[in-house]
# Entry
Amino acid sequence: MNRSDKNVSTLSTDLEEGTELNLDYGKLRAIGNGDAAVIPVAVQDYETREVLILAYVNQEALAYTLSHGVAAFWSTSRNELWVKGATSGDTLELVDVRVNCEQNSLLYLVRPLGAGACHTRDADGIARSGCYYRRIERICISNTGPEKQNAQSWRLAFV
Ligand SMILES: [Zn+2]
# Structure
């Protein structure tokens, strides 16, 4: 089941802190149905090479990024310029911008100046450096029903 199959919206705490795999396959379709002319941008720590976040940019956000030297995005949910760190202080200083072969995505290489690029916090209340703090793990479920076969399933585990 993915989120678009559900009638009730999933709480963000379940999405962000839970172990249920609940991928939002409708994300790009929702963006495509809107007015935002955007491309994805991956953001990587220039020194550690950790992939910090994936976001979207339009012309305005890229122009802001290049002229101010800090990572800025286009928020597809709020439909506005999102200067990372403007309110949180978690600014991402721009080192370099790379463009992919087909010119339909970007890579920002950055130096984080704040606590972390992700808005979530770990169990100790510390800001996470990046968004990719969980991995997908396979679990086996013993089926004691009439079919007596083991089913495979997937869950999230914190890295
Ligand atoms: Zn995040």
Notes: The pocket of zinc ion is lined by residues 53, 118-120, 131 (CB under 6 Å).
